[in-house]
Amino acid sequence: MSQASFPNLFSPITLGSLTLRNRIASTGHETHLNEKGRIGDRMIAYHEARARGGAGLIVVEVALVHPSAVFVADPIRVDTDDCIPGYQQLAEAVKGHGSGLIAQLFHPGREMLASEDGTAPVSYSASATPNERFHVMPRSMTPEMIAELISSYGAAARRMQSAGLDGVEIVASHGYLPAQFLNGQVNRREDEYGGSLENRTRFIREIVTAIRAETGEGFAVGLRLSGDERSHEGLEPDEILDACEMIASDGTLDYVSVVAGSSATLAGSVHIAPPMYEGVGYTAPLGQAIRARTGLVTIVTGRINQPQEAERIIASGQADLCGMTRAMICDPEVGNKAREGRVDDIRACIGCNQACIGHFHDGYPISCIQNPVSGRELQLALPAMAVTKRRVMVVGGGPGGMKAAAVAAERGHEVVLFERNSRLGGQAKLAQLLPHRAEFGGIITNLTREMELAGVEIRTGVSVDKTEIVNYAPDALIIATGAAPRWPDFEGRNDLHVADAWQVLQGQVEIGKSVLVADWRADWIGMGVAEFLAQNGHHVRLAVNGYMPGQTIQMYVRDAGIGRLHSLGVEALPYMRLFGADEDSVYLQHIMSNAAEICENVDTLVLCQGHVPQTGVEAIAIGLGLEHSLVGDCVAPRTAEEAVLEGLRSGMGV
Prior knowledge:
This protein is an alpha/beta fold and 654 residues long. The protein has 22 helices and 27 strands.
């Protein structure tokens, strides 16, 4: 495949006076890379990498148009001219590589996540209608404040044009302030901004008018909308279509960017960054409907991870551009690789949400479990070729070992990877067996391809011992031997049928009808095993050493998983530690009150109690006095993210 294989994806398109070289868009997303509310070197390097990698359009993340819009600590602000220099530098970097650049203009309304100093801020909305997800009660905006806000959008757009950007995008998606005006269940106003659909669209239409009044001809103006908010009391698709038609009829918009979901509810928020269980390109029909109704250029975003899918969506008339945002977080070179016919070399996003949106929610800069360079462009530059070629032995074929081998070989070393099992992948092989986690296996495919391109020799089915190491005689040894399931000591461990998660997923044990899953990590393993067993007809109780199942994982993945467990009838028991067992009962202890909880009629106890590092090869290396480094779970059991990052660093360090 080459550019000729994607005739629609690589055809130019015009927004305002901006002509884009292709239909690949990096849509607005939080990076947490700003510097005290301004765009600095880290964010510029991040977006420049995607422009260099072939993106046609880059839309910069939300920027606050008014002081009342602060919704997280240290947000990007465009409410004064102080923002202009940072955006100018960004525009020079991005447009220098041939990409278009558009900025998102934002006000959250009642969707307040945090504040700048830790105190609860005052939020504003169309009406004093509470938010379910964040439990916020907003103030109804006065007509004077509405006028001030509309003017602030226009002033912000003027600043963006003066900084050299190609356009702005009004964020009316995900239940944010403009959507709150649209929604008749949120907007209870009785003035000219409430009541009829014409009145409820007035806020957005006047914002567009203000932007047009403040900017020159040809400056692109777009609108981001949720085609379906998928929420209790959210906007329905028919309402959104009617509103879009009315807004588009003014003839002042250049494009509409279509997503799904709403920040206002837990169920709706999942679609802000949909996890891997959502179908590829599942929002495309929403874009198709809006495109047909409005006639506007339409961008659609939602699990579009490969150029083949983007080509199909555009060719079928569902959209004019495709947001491939997480695809480019995972591999900034998606555009170039597709254009050059290197489709098999694309590192495909697996929709895990761990280091992209997960990092943002935890207050850290964006990254990717498969591509640690994302968000660290200034720290982790492309590895330099080695001055001296060395024999490098990598022990362990999980994600960490695979990444280390690929990077070391890319730098010119002679690298052999040894894996004791017949297949590569480590725990990723097990992760992909869980319900709605099949795509996790993509990390194995991607890293295998990286090793192949770098020239790594792979030897599977080899258990490395002292003799193997001595015979190979490496100049450097990278140890990535992983971990094994932890079986804690507890009274009665031999009295009840007990298995661990690995045994269950590999079909190594018979499981009784009634199961108790003892989940110490409160991560995706306990939740996934519980769902796996419930789907297969078992009665499941999930005892979690935490305050909820999935406590330690990204909230959209967790919340969606909790919903599925509830639908399957899985009984969740939070705040529980495993204490003991007998022939047909499991004894738990409440971690706060220390009170006993007895679960009777249990046929099988399944342990999800974390892991213990495998350190045998490390001990051999120390005994031989070999130069070595440790990667992943053999250092301390964690996740694939840490393993791949440490693998990268080890490969760069030999």
